[in-house]
Structure formats: C-alpha cells, structure tokens
Amino acid sequence: MMGPAHSLSGAAAWVGVAVATALAGHPMPWPVLVAGTLICAGAALAPDLDQKSATISRAFGPPSKWLAGLVDKLSVVVHNATRGPADRRRTGGHRTLTHTWLWALLMGVGFSAAAVHWGRWAVLAILFAHMVLAVEGLLWRAARISSDILVWLLGAAAAWILADILNRSGNGSEWLFPGQPYLWIGIPIVLGAMVHCVGDALTISGCPFLWPLRIKGRRWYPLGTPRFMRFRAGAWVESNVLMPGFMVATAAGGIAALMLAA
Fold it and tell me: In the structure, what pLDDT confidence band is assigned to residue 16 with cuts at 50, 70 and 90?
C-alpha cells in the first residue's frame, strides 16, 4: 500500500481502539484520542524506513535518508542470517525486518520506555516525529507541494500543543496506567506498525509479519490474502475503495468514541 492509505488505516485503527476501550470501561480522554490517532497515522508509515524512496525516508531530510540506508543494510543482514532453507538470499531489505511483529513491539516498548524515563522532552520528540509523518501521510497532496520546513513547523506546533494539553490533570497522560505518565504512548506506535503490515499483506508481495516463525520452510514467509484478492500498491481499489472507507471509519469511530466517553 502507498503512504496515504497506510496513514488513513492507522488513524481508523486507533479510533477503533478508542471505541473498544470505551465499551470496556476505559474511555479515552479526547486529547488521547486526538494524539493517539495522529501518532498511529504517523507510525503506520514507519515500517517503510527500510526503503530510501519511502515517505518516512524523505520526511526529515538527510538524517532520515541516512537512517533509511542503515535500516536497509541491517534488514539485509538479519534476513540473510536467519533465512530458512526455502528463503532466497536478499540484497535489499524492504519488507523484511521492519515488517514483522517483533519490530513493531520493540518500537512501541522503546518509545514508551523513553517517554516514561525522560519525560516531557522525550514526549515532545516522539510527538514531533509522528506529527510530521501524520502530516505527510494524511495531507499528502498539500505536503508534496509545500516545503519541508513548513511541514516540520506544523509538526512542531502540533507536538507542543498536544504535549501541553495532555500534561494537564485529567487529560490523559496517565490513561490506562495510573501513576505511569505516557506509558500508553507506545500502543499507537505498535498498532500503526501492525496495521501497516496488514495493509501490505493485501498486496501482491505479501508481508513476512510472523518472522521468525517457520512456515513451509521459510522464516520470511510472505503472509497475505488469497491471490485473487490481492492488488498492486497504488491500484484503483486502494485509492477508490480503501482510502474513502478508512476516512469514513475514522470519522464515525471518532464521533462514537467521543459520545461514549462523554
């Protein structure tokens, strides 16, 4: 799937979590709903950091391009070192390490630990990174014709405002985990990465989400829907069916979550 569809699916997934937790007796304060939706939308682009041409690899200028190259090399090394007898040797790392459940979990745990340990400044950095990605993904047409600096300023402003609102008493910094501010922040990051993998599993190439579980002699088995249901990234079904569906689901879910939390 392409970046905009990934981001929209991430946003829809988080409002779905908001509805589910409200029904379970743990409603989200509205700042958590807003911040989590944007974080999840941004995190849904993150697994493509193994590809230099991806949105996330271009979002922060030379540093993100350098990091993408490093992640690509790391992914190749891990893939070739752990491949099963039926896996081919790889020279490129796209859709390998960063497209697994283990990577998603490690990213979420790592960001939560950073937020809890370093507090406000870590939270600001996490919010800034994911706000920029959310702008790139959700406002893709506007972001393409605007300057990177404008996108960064918008991301920084959103991060600063959300951090200030969340830090106020009762606004959700300790949502789900009393006494542990921002421990929840890793949840939308994990969810965004997982939703990305599900989206890629709908395409022709599939996604090795269950690595290192061995399936049919392969540790990097590309999971996916039945072949006749798959499509190429950027196909009409993505832009004309999935993306509008994600938009409607996000809007409806957000309204429902707010009503349940009221």
Answer: very high
How far is it, in rounded angstroms, from Cα 141 to Cα 118? 35
Is the full-model pTM beyond 0.70? yes
Q: CA angle 98-131-46, nearest 5°?
A: 5
CA distance 102 to 79: 14
Structure tokens at 46: 């993150």
* Residue 104 reports pLDDT greater than 90: yes
* 235-to-48, 194, 197, 229 alpha-carbon distances in Å: 18, 21, 17, 12
Give the integer Cα–Cα distance in Å for 102 and 120. 27
Place of tokens 């030379």: 62
Say how many CA atoms lie within 13 Å of 149 toward its Cβ: 0
Q: How far apart are CA 196 and CA 47, in angstroms?
A: 7
Say whether pLDDT at 145 is over 70.
no
Q: How far apart are CA 180 and CA 116, in angstroms?
A: 7
SS3 of residue 174 by DSSP: coil
Residue 230 buriedness (CB in 10 A; 0-12 / 13-18 / 19+): middle
**Helices 243-261 + 30-43 axis angle, to 10:** 160
Q: What are the DSSP calls for 26-85, one per residue?
A: -PPPHHHHHHHHHHHHHHTTGGGGGSTTSHHHHTTSHHHHHHHHHHHHHHHHHHHHH--T
